[in-house]
Amino acid sequence: MRMGCCCGSGPLPRTKSPPRPFIRGRSPSSGPRPEKGVLSCRDLVPQRERPMARLPDSYIDQVLARSDLESLIGQSVELKRQGRNLTGLCPFHTEKSPSFSVNPDKGVYYCFGCGASGNAVSFLMNREGLSFREAVLQLGERAGISPPQEDGPDPYEGLREVMARSHRLFVKNLEGEEGRAARQYLDERGIGPEVRKEYRLGFAPDAWDRLVLELGPRDAPKGEVAGVVVRNEAGRLYDRFRSRIIIPITDDRGRLVSFGGRIVGAGEPKYLNGPESPLFHKGELLYGLHEALPAIRKERRAIVVEGYFDRIALAVAGIGEAVAPLGTALTQEQIERLWRACDTVVLCFDGDNAGRRAAWRGLERALPTLKEGRRLRFLFLPEGEDPDTLVRQEGAQRFRTRLDEAIPPEAFAWTMVIAEHGEDAEGMAAAAAKLKGLADQSASPILGQAWRMAWAKRLNWPIHLLGGQSEGQAPAVEAKPAPSMKPRPAPSMRYVRRYRLSEDEQFDQVFGSLLHLLVMEEEAWRAVDLERVFELGLPENPWAGPFEELVEAQEKGVEPQPARWLGHLSQDRPLPPMPMMNEGVEVSVLARELANRVAVMVWKRHIQHLSALYQQDPKANRDLWDDISELQRLCRNGLYPGQTIRD
Question: What is the pLDDT of residues 431-489, one digit of tens each?
Fold first, then answer.
């Protein structure tokens, strides 16, 4: 059955309704828009911000066409030919038998062990921790393809020039007479002339207007925006950094965005960081990450230290994979940036109480990001020592040994909660409750269960007391409530209560997985009719633009082009992982099940809005009830009635 607007009832009169998160829009196959003032089901599109500064699709196509996937993957994976495909050990998870398959003809790969899949761009993103844009440009550079021209000039060009001029002055100051005390301090820390030059260190003298005068009246206000100049209550500008060694801070592309300053002599605060600015967002960046990325990728490990000079000292000693937060506690976004480049993150702290409290905050921030294949470790240094002093005393090899001996999260958490609550009965009960809460926060149920098993063994308690399941235990079944004796609500409200409406993120997850499966598997591509799934309209989502290309291709009978379509779809946001191909499950069945779930989510959005209109004036809008009932029936049966629907 091909449904018309609102299930065949024709255009609906627009009635007054409360604000709702929808904007006008239509699916590629939806035909002409209804006349002005008329509400169509195709108008119900959730609002999202559209991405900016896209790379041209033609450039992505050219890069993918000239990228040799076999050669790219072969640099890090030993591949052996099996028919038309190549196989090897998966680079994204640990395995003993090869389950990683590469199809050079299609330009895609798939791992039957962990589900990793994609094209040359996604391989580079996941293997080296690059963004989509960085991966495409890097592949283009390898293939000798000139990057596309930017849409316009850099809007922050003036601020970047002010930062560059400020930095040149700071470097000049350090090597001049005013920088003598700063150079002496750096020499005492083992940071000689060559290291100072390599890390572009500078110095701001004890003067209120040295930089303001250097920038002049035209650019000093820009310095205020960039964070190197401050305006007092009287409106006068003065230098932010005074009597401080200056450490330049760069973004992930190596561009100067801010400065950090270490006081020379007495004074507080000891360290001063630049403020948030259009160039600098301290919760997103890590000091030294741009320079450390090659070492992080090589070692498959990142070390998070507390200060600038800790990072510099380790790098000078040959341990180049260290980074440091920028004056704030480690954020979840910073941790995610590290996971994109490696599978082990070591948090390095002082061994005193303050260091352990900081480590606990780091654990809480990291918990939502932890899952299988990611290893978080904690390294506590001898009290009174930091990485800078310790690596100079003991040497790099001994420090690497300490890194290898860093403890896992469950051991650190156990030590902390037992120290806090004690080992008597009441203390153990309190500790168990806190440990259970930690396990519940893990992004991986499997990892959380493993922690519960380890803690239950230490406590000598049954694991279910920590919220886990015993071996062979069936999952708990929620008891059904007794039938209510209250009057039954209006039909439309009964429906809204019965079905929990999907959030945008849930829709994106299922829809993205469906798209990933469709472009990778020809059997899935032939099994699902995209126009039928979205004949009521496509909710706005990160892949709405490239999706139109897929619908048109399917209408014309075009065969899937996996590498090319993955490139177009992944630019605004990477697609979620493709569903795992379990043995015995047909690809067509899996594709139709996902299509069922997507269609039901779309129908529920329509039901939510129509029910709200109906409730405002049931008599005037009684015709809507037929539309709501029809959509309810479709939700129960699904788009493909023979397939399983799992809510």
Answer: 888 888 888 887 778 888 888 888 888 888 877 777 655 444 444 433 334 333 333 33
Question: Can you tell me which residue has the tokens 């519940």?
Answer: 440
Q: Which residues contact 290 (CB under 8 A, 6 or more apart)?
A: 250, 251, 252, 253, 254
Digit-coded pLDDT (tens) for 521-563: 878 788 888 777 776 666 667 777 777 777 788 878 877 778 8
**CB-based contacts of 18: which residues, under 8 Å, 6+ apart?**
612
DSSP string, 56-89: PHHHHHHHHHT--HHHHHHTTS--EEETTEEEE-
Contacts of 515 (CB under 8 A, 6+ apart): 543, 547, 550, 569, 575
Q: Are strands 256-263 and 301-304 parallel, antiparallel or unpaired?
A: unpaired
Secondary structure of 232-265 as H, E, C letters:
CCCCCEEECCCCEEEEEEECCCCCEEEEEEEECC
| Higher pLDDT pick, 240 / 124 | 240
In whole angstroms, what is the distance from residue 227 CA to residue 200 CA?
A: 19
Of 635, 533, 599, the C-alpha closest to 2 is: 533
The CATH superfamily holding the domain 157-273 is DNA primase, catalytic core, N-terminal domain (3.90.980.10)
Query: Would you say 304 and 363 are in contact if contact means Cβ atoms under 8 Å apart?
Result: no
pLDDT band at 27 (very low <50, low <70, confident <90, very high): very low
For 57-142, CATH number? 3.90.580.10
Considering the entire predicted model, what is its pTM? 0.61
DSSP 427-457: HHHHHHHHHHHHHHH-S-HHHHHHHHHHHHH
Residue 583: name the closest of 160, 113, 35, 63 by CA: 113
CB under 8 Å, gap of 24 or more: what pairs does 590-593 form? 590/517, 590/524, 591/514, 591/517, 591/518, 591/521, 591/523, 591/524, 591/527, 591/528, 592/527, 592/528, 592/639, 592/640, 592/643, 593/640, 593/643, 593/644, 593/645, 593/646
Peptide bond into 269 cis (omega under 30): yes
**Does domain 289-406 fall into CATH 3.40.1360.10?**
yes
Reading the block at residue 344, the tokens are 């082990």
Annotated domain spans of the chain: 1-53+487-647, 57-142, 157-273, 289-406, 415-465
Q: Which of 72, 130, 30 is nearest to 570 (CA)?
A: 130
User: What is residue 639's predicted lDDT score, i.e. its pLDDT?
Assistant: 66
